[in-house]
Amino acid sequence: MLYRRVLITGANGLLGQALVAHLSRQPEYDVLATGRDTFPRFANASCGYTALDITAPQEVQRLMQDFTPDVVINCAAMTQVDRCEKERDLCWRVNAEAVEHLARACRRIGARLIQVSTDFVFDGADGPYREDARPDPVNFYGKSKLAAENVTRDAGIDGWAIARTVLVYGTAHNLSRSNIALWVIDKLSKGEPIQVVTDQWRSPTYVNDLANGIERIVRFGKTGIFHLSGREMVSVYDFACTIAHVFDLDASLISPTDHTHFQQPAPRPPRTGFIILKAETELGYKPHPIEDALRHLGTRLGLPTPTS
Ligand SMILES: NC(=O)c1ccc[n+]([C@@H]2O[C@H](COP(=O)([O-])OP(=O)(O)OC[C@H]3O[C@@H](n4cnc5c(N)ncnc54)[C@H](OP(=O)(O)O)[C@@H]3O)[C@@H](O)[C@H]2O)c1
Predict the structure, then answer these.
(1) Is 13 in the pocket of ligand 1 (CB under 6 A)?
(2) pTM exceeding 0.90
(3) 49-87, pLDDT tens digit by residue?
(4) Given 14, 48, 121, 139, which is the most exposed site by the fewest CB atoms within 10 A?
(5) Is 115 in the pocket of ligand 1 (CB under 6 A)?
(6) CATH superfamily of the 4-168+204-227 domain
């Protein structure tokens, strides 16, 4: 049998764990998961794990030479948008410079690179966006991720791909960072009120769908940019209300507000979201409708979803 050797960086994060679970279930992949921690945060995946800080070029080079992957999927990033605005040097090292080193290492051994990117490369003036829309980030996180896209494209790798995504939600073991769905469920379950913006629109993405879309890029050997998100455009407020509805939580605890209410260091693009026709056509990507994805999440969390 011919195995594809896949190296996953940032494997302890939300997407990294979903990808490890998805790929290591399939016999044609030989997966090496890597993350900053000495040990993996997940269990029961049939794959190897080794510690790797992507900002250490020599470590990256050594591991690439030892494992000789066919494909590298870079899920490692500094993803806290406000922290990126304040800690710009660190953000640039992780999100941009480290990708340049990864890309060079891929070119040396002839590996493909799939770089995971974001809707925050756009200014949010007129989403939803197609893959060929002009990026124009409004915050430092978006700038660093756009720089990573550029080094991925320009490194001289034959098989590069960029998988952009939007407002990812789901669950995984010991996450260092929560996400909108887990946050809303947690707060409303405790009866705590929350304020959510009505003036930011997104096409929220269930992490399992995203992992499935990325696996299809690998399987079909696709190159170029792909937009992988959910299909529905909603305000973040409406998304929170749908979460309350699906989990039968008290939606009256959610107060609508707008972005001016929050003092955030990094500006947010108002209306992003993606047109996913290319991924649907070329990859056969079929994301779950939001309510179905939330019910699937409920099953994973062991929570009842009485509205099904
Ligand atoms: N989540 C979203 O809403 C969203 C939206 C658009 C695009 N994206 C993109 O999707 C990708 C995956 O994000 P995610 O949602 O899975 O975020 P995440 O849960 O924060 O995962 C990122 C992972 O990268 C790891 N990491 C950070 N610096 C590293 C380094 N120097 N070396 C190795 N690993 C490092 C983090 O480690 P620690 O756990 O130790 O911190 C974390 O496990 C990122 O490229 C992100 O930009 C995410």
Answers:
(1) yes
(2) yes
(3) 999 999 999 999 999 999 999 999 999 999 999 999 999
(4) 48
(5) no
(6) NAD(P)-binding Rossmann-like Domain (3.40.50.720)
